[in-house]
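REQUEST FORM: STRUCTURE PREDICTION
Request ID: SP-0412
Submitted by: Lab K.M.
Chain count: 1
Length (residues): 469
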Amino acid sequence: MTNAAPAASPTTSPSHSFALSAAAPAARVLARGWLHLALAALVGSGLVVLLVVLARAPGIHEILPFIASFRTALVIHVDLTVLVWFLACAGLLTALTLKEGTGISLGRIALGLAWAGGAILAFSPFLAPGVPHMNNYVPVLANAPFLVGLLIFAAGTTLMALAGLFFAPLPFNAAPGEIVLRLGIKSALLILLVATAMVFWTWSLIPPSVEIGEYYFELLFWGGGHVLQFTHTQLVMVAWLWLASRVAGGVSLSPRVAALLLLLGAAPAFAGPVIHEMLPVNSIDNRHAFTALMLWGAAISPLIVGLATLLAALRGGRESVIQPLRLSLLASLLLFGVGGVIGYLIQGINVTIPAHYHGSIVSVTLAYMGIIYLLLPQLGASPVAGKWPIWQSLLYGGGTLIHILGLAAAGGHDVQRKTAGAAQGLSGASETAMRIGQSGALLAVLAGVIFLVLVYRALGRKNALPPPA
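STATUS: Completed
RESULT:
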């Protein structure tokens, strides 16, 4: 989508712009559908995150009558955010690349399946009793509606990925920056298919002696969950390049170098099937191999792209219309860096782990928020302007930074993860750290509410969809 941007100063290094050109009208309508699914996931996760935060808060948890619901709420919250929200945003970007015809038709079916699956996931605690399992990546509520919803949602995202791979040809007559972004989106979709296939492959490899329970689901989603993170990493780099181009007029990376970095960032994901082939899925070596793959394989490309887009954002213009995009980008880069550093400090099974992944998750979320602000006028909505989007980015980024630093400090006192109430064993410094962390989390929740209000208001003030460029 073409966006005017401030020109780079002649005294600076050459800048290269990365943006998608205007999509076909049907593709933009489809993109709005994925956007609405993404927003609905945030609404649902926000409703349950209040329970999660309060259940962990010192002093408050003693008077809550529903602490037993903490684990169920956490399952639904995590799945709505890191699964439905993230992949709906991937659907939004994919829809913008589709051609009229078969691609749009498949995209509509994919969207319908994703909506149905996501809704069943969200309401599954009310449809049947189920034991919550706090396994990594895709925590599970062990009841039939949840598992059916998960399968339907996976079918929708798989169909979306296939549509994006086969019905969104690279327009080689387009600007080089656009080809790079489309390449990044395609690589992310291919990785998504690999991750999904690995889950089903793992299911066939789990020994019959492993009983269905938390350990079973930990094995089931361990390899595919790690590979899926490369999808998110690819798309956050796409978002950074696009936002930096809008904010500063371009990035110092040439399209050729940016394309190589995206390919380099995607390559480690394809080691996942090799690990499964070489190491039993229930072996400690398999577990360590995927941990090392994520720790080292996803570091180089985001670091280089992140530094380049950071420099662009710092030199970018100060026009009020681009400040929400600039702050979303800066906050995303900051949290990606801090979350990554905390990841290297993890020792044991304590709340340092959620400090790491909350930094990474919110980094991706902030990048998507910036992209949504950027795209709203192109999707037929009014632009988001004024001070509120600026405050929203500051509160969300700042609140999350306080949250993860508090969790990391509490993890240094060995406060265990996936616990609530008295089970946390809080006292002294660990209690202070958790209080600080939860105050930051509440600020982030408030910022999330502000984001939803701003975007829904913009969508309610519909503008005519612009014609294709």
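NOTES: Confidence is low (pLDDT under 50) at residues 1-12, 63-68.
Reviewed by: T.R.
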